[in-house]
Amino acid sequence: MRTNSLALRLFLSAAAWTVVILVITAIALTSVYRGAVERSFDRRLGVYQRTLVADVATPDDSSDRFPQSLGELLFDLPLSGWYWQVTRLDTARPELKSSRSLWDSTLPQLEEAGGPMRAPGSRQGYVQGPEDQRLRIVERMIDLGDDGRFLVSVAGDASEIDEEIRWFDIALLVTFSFLGFVLLLITTFQVRFGLAPLNRISDGLAAIRSGTAERLDGSFPVEVAPLARETNALIDANRDIVTRARTHVGNLAHALKTPLSVMINEADAHPGDPLASKVREQADIMRDQVARHLERARLAARVAVLGTVTDVRPVIMSLMRTMEKIHRERGIAFDLDAQDDASFRGERQDLEEMIGNLFDNACKWAQSRVSVEIFIERPEAGGDRRVVHILVDDDGPGLTPQQRDQVAHRGHRLDETKPGSGLGLSIVVELATLYGGGLALGTAPIGGLRAELLLPSV
Fold first, then answer.
1. Which end of the chain is more exposed for a tag (fewer CB within 10 A), N or C?
2. Which residues are within 8 A (CB) of 454 and not within 5 positions of it... i.e. 6 or more apart?
3. For 170-234, what is the HEC assignment?
4. What are phi and psi of 446, to 5 degrees?
5. What is the CA radius of gyration of the chain?
6. Which helix (H) or strand (E) element contains residue 442?
7. Is residue 220 part of a domain?
8. What domain range includes position 274?
9. Are residues 15 and 159 in the same domain?
10. Residues 6+ apart with CB under 8 A from 395
11. Quick count: other Cβ atoms within 10 Å of Cβ 348?
């Protein structure tokens, strides 16, 4: 999942809600469980309290009126944390009866500590006992009329409650951690599964751009089906526009070439007439301008086509064989060093036109050798654009930096003794620029001119 991706946003939002819900649920479960443990502990204390209440209500003044242990040996163990105490409140000085475990201490009253009344005459809560023990205590007021008014208190060590809660929290933490991990895995799977159609569209568009497919094929969910449908419609509309543009360019070229040819022929019929010479001069300029703009329109229309890919090596081999035949009498040798997987994201005829012009220029000036090297430049980290480099070197006289700037301009020729119109390199520059590439001129290692053509690859 990349930064700022839709998948990462979905995953983080789902993960955040999962953590929040699990934390809230854990807090709620801990609170509920603590209440259940306290109620269970209070019921246990209540059993001892009812025994003491029964003894209080029994009219017996014997010393065994309040049994010490109440069936629990901890009431006999000093400072064990388990205590009971019966306080008579209707006397001038309260009379106390307590368990041996209290030793010489007394239990505090919840009423004095501000403990709430849970039932008529009853209270439950926490107090600090002997040795700063934290105790859970239950109290009950007993009014026997003339026989007196008594407060019956039973307390137990609250560490048992805390220990029970602690073990529950540990189990809950382990369980919820495992559950959260499983939920995050499920969320990851859900995000990947849910966004799979978008990945298919992305892969389909990459295939169209690389030339291995012409349309987005397959069935898509109803949410993204309109996107695929409109994308295919856009591709079809693009092809229709390119086709119409090519047709219009061809019709315009045909419509303009004929009148210009007639004007030039009529001017040639009167070689000594100054007016005919001027007409011929201006007609040549018009034909050059028309050819230039028609060529740009034709190239722009071809570049607009999606999904066209051309292997570079076969085109180079074909052009080299052609140039060897043309310049056989001069004995020019061609050297080729090319990657087999080098490809150009564009039409074959455009590549042939660019390479053909570079070969033609190199063969005109080469003494005996033309060297060609082709390699792919891999994209840098974070990039996805591959570039094919085509290096054409000759062992001719080469060019100075000033001359290199001049030869790329349309119609500019440095040597009128060589055949050509001066349009070759400028056509290469314009066509390469339309494809997002470029042409750079430099000094070749074998002594002449180096032409480096950069074009988009796949």
1. N
2. 387, 388, 389, 390, 432, 437, 438, 439, 440
3. HHHHHHHHHHHHHHHHHHHHHHHHHHHHHHHHHHHHHHHHHCCCCCCCCCCCCCCHHHHHHHHHH
4. -90, 5
5. 49
6. strand 438-443
7. no
8. 225-300
9. yes
10. 366, 367, 368, 369, 370, 444, 446, 447, 448
11. 16
Reading phi first (left if > 0) and then psi (alpha if -120 to 50, else beta), residue 380 is in: beta
SS (H, E, C) 262-327: HHHHHHHCCCCCHHHHHHHHHHHHHHHHHHHHHHHHHHHHHHCCCCCCEEHHHHHHHHHHHHHHHC
Tokens of 250: 């061809």
Closest CA to 391 of 454, 349, 344: 454
Residue 246 lies in a domain: yes
CATH number of residue 382's parent domain: 3.30.565.10
pLDDT in tens, the chain (458 residues): 667 778 888 888 999 999 999 999 999 999 999 999 999 999 999 999 888 888 887 765 554 555 555 667 888 888 888 999 998 888 877 788 888 888 888 888 887 766 666 667 788 899 988 888 899 999 998 888 878 888 999 999 999 999 999 999 999 999 999 999 999 999 989 888 888 888 888 888 888 776 677 788 888 888 888 888 888 888 888 878 877 777 777 677 667 777 878 888 888 888 778 888 888 888 877 777 777 666 666 665 555 555 578 889 999 999 999 888 888 888 888 899 988 888 888 888 888 889 998 998 889 889 889 999 999 887 665 556 789 999 999 998 888 888 877 765 544 444 444 444 345 677 888 888 888 888 988 889 888 899 999 998 87
